[in-house]
Amino acid sequence: MSDAPLPARYYPPGGDAHGHPVRLAWDDGSLLILRDDGPGLRVPQHALTVEARGFNHEQWALSWPQDDSAHLLMVADRDIAPLKRVAPGLFQVGEQHRRAGRRRLGAGLALLVLLPLVLAGLLLLFLDPVVDRVVDHIPPEVEQQIGAVVLARTRAEGPLIEDGPAHAALQAIATRLARPGEKLDFYLAQRPTINAFAAPGGVVVVHSALLKEARSAEEVAGVLAHEIAHVELRHSMHQLARAAGLRLIVAALFGDYGTLGGWAAQLGELKFSRDAEREADLRALDRLAETGIDPQGLLAFFETLSRQEGADGLRPPALFSTHPATAERIEALRAVLARRPQSAAQAIGIDWQNVRTALAAP
């Protein structure tokens, strides 16, 4: 063993709970305990029990029975190496327990680090189903209040067209599409972007540029049918809840309409999922067929915008960016329409050139 004895603390039976500083040495198969405040002790190896203790097993406890009492020594792991070299057998079992304990501690610390990541992953995995279940139980009155907030924000952002040929045309198409007792309100916003969006509570906002771009009432009817499908399927409410998380749901349930308004203002920029768009397209075709309007109008409008985008090299219209009408989506519409039996369609009977001319007037 080293010439310099090891520092340790000795806890004799019935002694001070804080222990006494001692020094340890090894001599001929026995542990020598050198005390400054009393006579030294000699403990044979066979009487000693050694255990690793403390956080991360950074201490060693050496104990032995004597005179029906238990004696204890505590030695820091950083100081114990010389004793391990001369009496390795003492520490064999303790080292095994120490390594196993450190593995358990390492696994526990890794779990503590990974647990927030796992919980975050699980939250992302299950958030949509949870949000959907909660949204399904939000009363219609709350949705109508959110729709009112959206309408107020729309009015604040720019003028609405509330009379004239374009307004009358929009209302006529909406009346043709609506079912008896259905709560739907259509508004025409004077905006330069080609867009339309549906808000909770049955509020549908259409930009004037969309009517100017359309070539017929049937094309606008297709777009409106698509937006009505979003209302019917509550896509807007679900998308708002996903974007805002549970904050929006709590705000809705507790009537915090200021918070609702802040999120509702983003409704025109929300992007629906591919599945939601496909579902709304199919539901729109059903409604168009049900009301005797040519379902080809929806496809024709998207094809027109797609051709213009490709020819002009311009950014996609707002309707495309918020409701992505990709080539895949257009092809899907073509395929569905090709499979569906053609039914007799009744023209909406609106002079569309008159509508476009009225919107072009200063």
UniProtKB/TrEMBL annotation:
The UniProt family comment states: Belongs to the peptidase M48 family.
Cofactor(s) for this UniProt protein: Zn(2+)
Q: Which residues cross the membrane?
A: 105-127
Gene3D superfamilies per UniProt = Metalloproteases ('zincins'), catalytic domain
- Presence of the UniProt keyword Metal-binding in the record: yes
Q: Which UniProt keywords apply?
A: Hydrolase, Membrane, Metal-binding, Metalloprotease, Protease, Transmembrane, Transmembrane helix, Zinc
The name this protein goes by in its record: M48 family metallopeptidase
Q: Name one GO molecular function term.
A: metal ion binding
The free-text note explaining how the cofactor binds reads: Binds 1 zinc ion per subunit.
| Biological process terms in GO annotation | proteolysis involved in protein catabolic process
**Taxonomy, superkingdom:** Bacteria
Q: Which residues form the Peptidase M48 domain?
A: 167-335
One Pfam family, short name: Peptidase_M48
